[in-house]
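Regression test attached.
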Amino acid sequence: MNLMHGFGVLADPMNIVYMFVGITLGVLIGVLPGLGGANGVAILLPLTFSMSPTSAIIMLSCIYWGALFGGAITSVLFNIPGEPWSVATTFDGHPMAQQGRAGEALTAAFTSSFLGAFVAIVLITFLAPVIARFALQFGPAEFFAVQLLTFCSFVGMGKEQPFKVLTAMMLGFALAAVGLDSVTGQLRMTFGSMELLRGFDFLIAVIGLFGIGEILLTMEEGLAFKGKSAKINAAVVLQTWKQLPKYWATAIRGSIVGCWMGITPGGATPASFMSYGLAKRFSRNGHKFGTGEMEGVVAPETAAHAAGTSALLPMLTLGIPGSPTAAVLLGGLLIWGLQPGPLLFIEQKEFVWGLIASMYLGNVVGLIVVLTTVPLFASILRIPFSIIAPVIIVICAVGAYTVHNAFLDIAVMLVFGVLGYIFKKLSYPLAPLVLALVLGDMAESSFRQAMLLSQGDLSIFWSNPLVGTIVTLALAMLFWPVISLAIGRLWPRSGSKAAVSLK
Amino acid sequence: MAVLESVSRLKAAAAITCVSLSAISITTLTSTQALAWEPTKSVEFIVPAGTGGGADQMARMIQGIIQKNNLMKQPVVVINKSGGAGAEGFLDVSGSNRNPHKIIITLSNLFTTPLATGVPFSWKDMTPVAMLALDNFILWVNAEQPYKTPKDLVDAAKSGGANSSKMGGTGSKQEDQIITAAIEQATGATFTYIPYKGGGDVAAQLVGNHITASVNNPIEAVAQWRAGALRPLCVFDAQRIDLKEPIANNMSWNDVPTCKESGLDVEYTMLRGIFTSPGVNADQIKYYVELFQKVRETPDWKDFMAKGAFNTTFMTGDEYKAWLAKTETTHKGLMEKAGFLAK
Amino acid sequence: MKQRKSDEDAVTTHHTMEIAVALMFAALAVVVMIDSNRVGNGWASDGPEAGYFPFYVGLIMFISSAAILIANLVSRTPNRSTFVERGQFVLVMKVLIPTIVFVGLIWLIGIYFAAAIFIAFFMYWLGKYPIQKILPVAILIPLALFVMFEIWFLVPLPKGPVEAMLGY
């Protein structure tokens, strides 16, 4: 009933136009590394002041959907994550492109993004008030538990030497700690340098490690992208769709992880890592992850898009932004004179249901827009390396600069590029480094906030059923290899059955 | 098609300014006649905080107002430089001598960051333009809790012993923690201060009963007040907020007593002011003062002020400088007593 | 560095590189620990201090990089295979050095002209393209970036004297 009313709001042709403009701008912002969803929405926010609040939020949220879709494009093609949440997409997406399957990888990424978003929107439509109350139960201890769970579901699965995994991870944590300590307000590891005040941003490290590092490795093998021979036609979309139903379990798991992380609010980036980690652990093809498995694209993309979408729920119902982009949208709502909060759904029906209806339509429009670009983007790989490589390096430099408007970040990106090259050759793993960099700061501050609350008493992590369950689950994840071994020894048959049912 | 329109408008504007720019430079070359100064290229509007925060919102609001009402021929470009609790942004402005195309919006970190981190800068390294408004702080508690006055809360904190009362706030050794320290100094009660990332997080943590009280800005918590989840106890300004429109339970902002009148002798407001680079000339300062006066007169701005229950005091020139000097001393005193100064 | 004959073409071996990188990490770990000690690495009454986690991060990093170092030093069968061949090294440097120059140029003349020069140089030097193919790419890409960032999105990128003359 309400939703139908919402679609009525969308019948205004101008709103449909805004939707297309928003999606297109969003994809563009998503493709450019550095210029993320939050920056993109913030930059375009003042342009929307002359519109009605409903039209404005439709356009801005469509920019956000576009950015969520667009982040995958450069991840697959060039190993450069356009957005933080598409880092995990590079793990299998880029190998697929190298095998000449860029079209398939992009189609899988876009389709699973759409699926994740769709699950999240249905959730928002029907369960918004219930979920809002659930999100309120999250204090610092619960946040830490979720971050721990993300970490534990991802680590301890590589083939690399354990000491190298450990070193890379610690490097990530150490880099995350540089700058202002959010709990005591002290400066850490800045050594009096003004340039180090802003710390090391995750995105700059990732653009360097993955993007520039990849170009150096490619160069070493002689001036060509491996995906050059890719055969591209429009039918690739349909062919990929035929394969996708196989991965329904991964897609559902990804959507659940994503919705959970978006609402709590853990964020889209941790969600994508967690979903990838879980898929690798529980999928039949888990051991092949990292070599170009389509399932390894489906898992992070469903989760990232589900998290990105459901992050709007706590924003609308409670005024807590579930992601940096949601924080900017929240500012927009306040500027247009809307007060996000429990009463928004009652007092501003037209706005809320218009927004929800636009989520449905916006994602459909987004899927159509990005799918039509698949052949176009896949054909970029046919451009000779000596043309595309300098262009990529220029775009990486632009991306690194726009994160903090700092010149030095471009130089830092270059250093990370060389580091990425050396790491790859000495088989130090990059994923634990990146995960530590993205989670380190958040996890440390939630841990210390929890410690302030309990005055240094660790039992706060088992002080209620919610936090206790998550922490226990996290530890079970960490020791899963040992546990599954033990189960296998004790009950050989039922153990193997359990493993099957988990797929 | 507002976006495309405005994009093409911007393009047209850019083309026109290129032409008019050369025209201007010719006139300035041929005649020495004094012309009122105007920006000749886009003006960088630095926000020494992240995207989505209060200062960022206000800066983008101002950018939108200037653009919508054509108050300036050149575009305003908002840039976030939040590193080191805003030190990065302030150092950028204080380091760009005689650059009138750079302005910055401040929050309390103008005073607190140099004191707490030891990064060397001060408001005296920049040129004060105008005070736009003062942001209010309100003492909030969860509506389910029995506290009706600040005294109830303070008494409970005293009788409950250490760590019984938790105060949530944004950031560390910044405005929220300074107010908390001021309350402790004025009453002798102790609060455990928990630093969070943003004001919205703090309000939600208070609704979820994870903390006992908060000193959120009005705009961060008003939605929860209206929904009956939070209760305002008092406002930390010298006088009540002058807004009589009912908000929740027939109470208006004006019905919230000042902390001083309810027996808690703490006063604090946060500067939302504009500065520009050091060494700019009087003409250039005058241009910006007039620009912000025009911004203040727009209905959009007035509406924004009412929504956020701001104290709308406007100051420029020597009055503003005197206020800054006084406020700096207050911060120094409060932070020294609380032991927040960088070692 | 002494190398066996078959590795004549190698710039360096895996073995040397492993040791160098492990030493670098160990040194970094020491720096992290020293600074964490400065801000306090204890467990105060209200939880860990600012340097608590970084200190242990540094410590673990030191131990694990030391383990890698020792494993490589005492190994009886060190991995003396080629880390990078001379030919490969030259190729990598062919990208890396122009990129470093490009970053330096951004600082001097702004990103747009630096990008034009960089793309043109790269296409000319490595791609051996004729000038009529180089010019459109080298001009259009920076121009597109300029329109997108400076005019549409109002995001200023580093600019140099030429843009300043044009009034940007």
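Expected vs. actual: identical. Residues 1-8 of chain C have pLDDT under 50 and may be disordered.
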